[in-house]
Amino acid sequence: MITLRAAELVQKADVILYDRLVNKEILAMARDGAQKIYVGRAVGDDTTHQDATNRLMVHHAEAGRDVVRLKGGDPTIFGRGGEEAEYLQAHKIRYEIIPGITSGIGSAAYSGIPLTHRQYASSVAFVTGHEDPTKGEEAVKWEALAGSVDTIVVMMGLSRIGEICRQLVQGGMDPKTPVAVIQNGTTPLHRMVTGDLTDIADVVGKSGITPPTNIIIGKVVDLSKEIGWR
Predict the structure, then answer these.
(1) Which of 49, 77, 154, 191: CA 20 to 30 A from 185?
(2) Phi-psi region of 174 (alpha: psi -120 to 50; beta: other; left: phi over 0)
(3) What does pTM read for this prediction?
């Protein structure tokens, strides 16, 4: 999925710096002659990868080219869009930030899961499930989160799903709280499995679900049985 404004700029760009999860159909929108440069970063890549991407943005912009930094989802939802904008600002490069459709919202909608609902959820939190090992402690306080929000959307957390669920239960969340794990949301490969905080890790293990995924935790997950439309 892509916004009209983003599609317009992709079609006009001289250079497109694109990430790992960008759909090939979106890249096909580029005009003839546009330079498409892969700058995707996988889990485990060192931090110098981001430095190289920053330098490429500035290099092509200073050369007078129209540059699109194309990300999967929304650039400012765990997409380093803020960091890259800071770098451009420091180098006096003009830029425009285009809102995107974050996978946390898109995958839920395509699964028939409303992240908020007047009867079940008046709050939602988007959190990262991928922790930075250099920090020495978890960035997300799962036990505190357990009692403070109705719906939790975990992005990039599949490998830690068992530990995340354990900490939420330890923080007081009902062990039978529904959980959905959605793979390749909004694409033809869209797939979902469900369970609760006590068994979802086992369900995932038996299902063969692999990244990219989003994890949705909360009562609203059960609504997929009623209003799921895929």
Answers:
(1) 49
(2) beta
(3) 0.91
Cβ 215 vs Cβ 172: under 8 Å: no
Domains delineated in the chain: 4-90 (3.40.1010.10), 103-227 (3.30.950.10)
Is 204 within 8 Å of 193 (Cβ atoms)? yes
Beta-strand relationship, 124-128 and 151-155: parallel
Cβ(31)–Cβ(12) below 8 Å: yes
Distance in angstroms (rounded) separating the CA atoms of residues 23 and 175: 37
Q: What is the pLDDT of residues 119-160, one digit of tens each?
A: 999 999 999 998 665 555 678 999 999 999 999 999 999 999
